[in-house]
Amino acid sequence: MQRRHSVPSTPRRLLRLLLVVVAMLAVSGSLTWAASPAAGALFPTTATNTTSSAIQMDSSGGMHVAYSTDPAYQATYAYCAPTSDCARATNWVQAIFQNNVHEVQIALTSQGHPRMLLTIDDYGDPNHSNGLYDTYWYAQCDTGCTNSNNWATTFISGTADIASNLSPAGKHFFALDPQGRPRFIFGPSYGIDSNFQSYSWMNYATCDSACTATGSIDPATGLPSPTNWSFGKINVTLTQPALVFTAASQPRVMGFTAANDGQGNDIVSYSACDAGCLSSRNWGTTMVGQPGLANEEGVSLRLDSHDRPRIALYFLSAEALYGWCNTNCLTSTKWAAVPVVPTAEDGGDPDLQLDSQDQPRIAFHSIVNPPGGVGVGLGYAWCDTNCESPQASFQRVLVEDSNPLNSDWPLVRPANCTYASWLAGYLPSLALDTSGNPRIASDSLFVASGCPGGIEDLHTGVRVAYFNQGATSSSGDHHVFVSMVRR
């Protein structure tokens, strides 16, 4: 089976990888580390390649992490109890199930029960005889979830003719509503209208109860049909869709759609529905901002305590922004944004969370060294005052660079390459505990350069880092971050 990474090899991603390697080679010295019991970082496993990291926190402080594990690309659920030292791999207990999983997402019910959406590509089937390159599977567990036997999974739907490992859809399109019911966005799908014109839409999948129940075998797919899932349409075509819910279980969706400006650009799209959301006529959509580069884009959408949308955006010539709307959000002019990082090309792969005071916290991939950036690796940004105004000021830190990764999982440089190192901070997933302290899972790449074929990414590893928000200082950017307990 061919190795597939969750970090796609698009032309712009390859350029960004080159920039990271160049920046790494330009760095002299190393980070300063100090001991602190409130901070830690680790690879949950170094036994095999892992990828597609996602993290959630329960109300008791337990960490729940999901990812895909070689060699069979199995879904992995890992848990660290709130009283444990989570910087020690032995304190993470795992359940492994389902094969050919190349992307995972995780959400928790209010009781802390994990729910996962698995994107499965049976890469071992060269014919894809059922016409589905990617299939979406729902997984849930209510007790003893570190035992694989306690997980139930079911096939939900599939996407024909598109292999998402070649065009990843981001990891924000699965969510639970406030009642703990699973929903997700997938697509696009294509059809012909009554005027024989082609059109496309996104699918909105919902389930209210018994969500792993299945019926008879569907002859079109050869898989059991999902009994209690319903499917609606949103009349917009999106990449990188992000889904969230109001307190009244009303869906809100953000993503990128074609600007149709003749330049190949995309534009940010926002959609909302208040009732009857399986019908496309009940959705409203607006375009936000100006068109920008249709490559290497990302958006993370959250709602504040008043159900107002807040976004972290990487777009518009690789600019990282924090955006918001307070009223009439289906009117494009009601949206505004401020920069999160000052340097073009920095701040990619953003994931946004809001603390209990609605203050934004953002994990991102940092590729710019000081003075323009905080360094190369996993970045973290936050704002505490006037965050939804032109006066907003984001502070930034470098959580991890390559040094601790190279120490924790030392790998050998290929003999025909001149340089090799772990690179930290790809596709971070951010969660906050009940005190607003960040917990971040991200993908790492072990990359070699100066090879006969150029740059080669050789291994992948999921990395977890956590620290107290109070450990961040009051102002400015920081090249050296807080203490990480090294085991």
Q: What would you say this structure looks like, in words?
A:
This protein is mainly β. It has a single domain (15-58, 175-478), classed as 6 Propeller (Neuraminidase), CATH 2.120.10. The protein is 5% helix and 48% strand. It has 2 helices and 31 strands. The chain has helices spanning 11-26, 402-408; strands spanning 40-42, 50-57, 63-69, 74-80, 93-97, 101-108, 114-120, 132-140, 152-160, 174-176, 182-192, 198-207, 214-218, 223-226, 229-234, 239-245, 251-258, 266-273, 283-292, 298-303, 309-315, 319-325, 335-339, 348-354, 360-368, 375-382, 395-400, 419-432, 438-451, 454-466, 477-478. The strands form 8 sheets. Strands 24-25-26-27-31 form a 5-stranded mixed β-sheet. Strands 1-30-29-28 form a 4-stranded antiparallel β-sheet, covered by helices on one side. Strands 2-3-4-5 form a 4-stranded antiparallel β-sheet, with no helix packed on it. It is globular. The two termini are 33 Å apart. The model is unreliable at 1-12, 27-36 and 474-487 (pLDDT under 50).
